[in-house]
Design a protein that fits this description.
By secondary structure, this protein is mainly beta. The protein is built from three helices and 16 strands. The chain has one domain. Strands 2-3-4-6-15-11-13 form a seven-stranded mixed sheet, with helices on one face.
């Protein structure tokens, strides 16, 4: 069984099952609530008689827009789902998608936003939020621009901006691909998005970088965000990249975790807006002849 391991705290937090992501957040924030399948944003927007069966989990006071939470539970009968995530640069736990299967496909048709990874004052540890906004075999990147979907996303973005004020995003700025929008510098230590994937025999981590004394934990020179320049501690996952495709195949059954790339989160501000499509695979490995 794949396990899920959150960053260790002073008391040594170690997660040993997929549901423990929620249990850990429950211990930290309190009440857990599931948004039923027929109450999700996707169900509200669906014009089909076949409603999506996936759900969303909220934790604690759920400082998020209506219909958003911390986890999307992908139901096995939903052939494809559309997800919108607002990932806080300060959210060391990240956001999760459960129910992924081997050979499923994950796409990021859109990623935007800038975040700061160095501030003089501590942030308020605002978490990001995620939601299911669509389901159906014919999903494409254009779905998020639909006349019913886009207003929902834009309202959620306004909420995110109220939590993560843009005025604080001013030093060591990084876009969703870890690039400084002013200089074009490709950051190796911090910034951008890391997606952790399940892999048989390995623990699914919220993978983190390292401080200046542990540069071996950084993205390798020259900062290219591809498999050839992965830090050695990453056993299964990928960085969002502006140079390569952000379509990936899920290697095993389990949990997907989307998190900001850093090792110190208490001085981060800002967020990334991510559009995600997940499609069911056939469960069969591709044979290369």
């Amino acid at each position: 069984m794949n396990t899920l391991n959150l960053p260790k705290k002073e008391n040594g937090t170690t997660i040993t099952s997929s549901t423990a992501f929620v249990n850990h957040l429950k211990a930290k924030h309190g009440q857990v609530r599931t948004i039923a399948a027929d109450k999700t944003i996707a169900a509200r927007l669906s014009k089909s008689s076949k409603k999506p069966k996936s759900t969303v989990i909220t934790v604690g006071e759920n400082l998020a827009p209506d219909g958003f939470g911390k986890v999307v539970e992908w139901h096995e009968e939903d052939e494809a789902i559309a997800i919108v995530a607002f990932l806080s640069a300060a959210d060391e736990n990240g956001l999760a998608i459960t129910g992924a299967k081997r050979t499923d496909k994950m796409e990021f048709p859109f990623a935007t936003g800038n975040a700061s990874f160095s501030e003089d004052t501590e942030n308020e540890h605002a978490d990001g939020f995620i939601s299911l906004v669509g389901a159906g075999a014919d999903l494409a990147g254009s779905y998020f621009l639909g006349p019913e979907v886009l207003p929902v996303i834009n309202e959620a973005e306004k909420f995110a901006k109220s939590l993560f004020p843009e005025k604080t995003v001013k030093t060591k700025r990084r876009d969703a691909f870890g690039v400084d929008p002013g200089s074009g510098h490709r950051a190796k230590q911090e910034g951008g998005v890391i997606v952790s994937l399940p892999k048989k025999g390995f623990t699914t981590h919220v993978f983190t970088s390292g401080n200046n004394d542990h540069r071996e934990r950084w993205i390798k020179e020259p900062g290219t965000r591809d498999s050839a320049h992965m830090p050695d501690q990453i056993t299964s996952g990928f960085f969002l990249s502006d140079q390569f495709s952000n379509d990936h195949v899920i290697p095993d059954d389990g949990v997907i975790i989307i998190a900001p790339w850093d090792h110190k989160f208490e001085d981060n501000f800002g967020f990334y807006r991510l559009h995600i499509i997940l499609r069911r695979g056939n469960g069969k490995d591709v044979v290369v002849e």
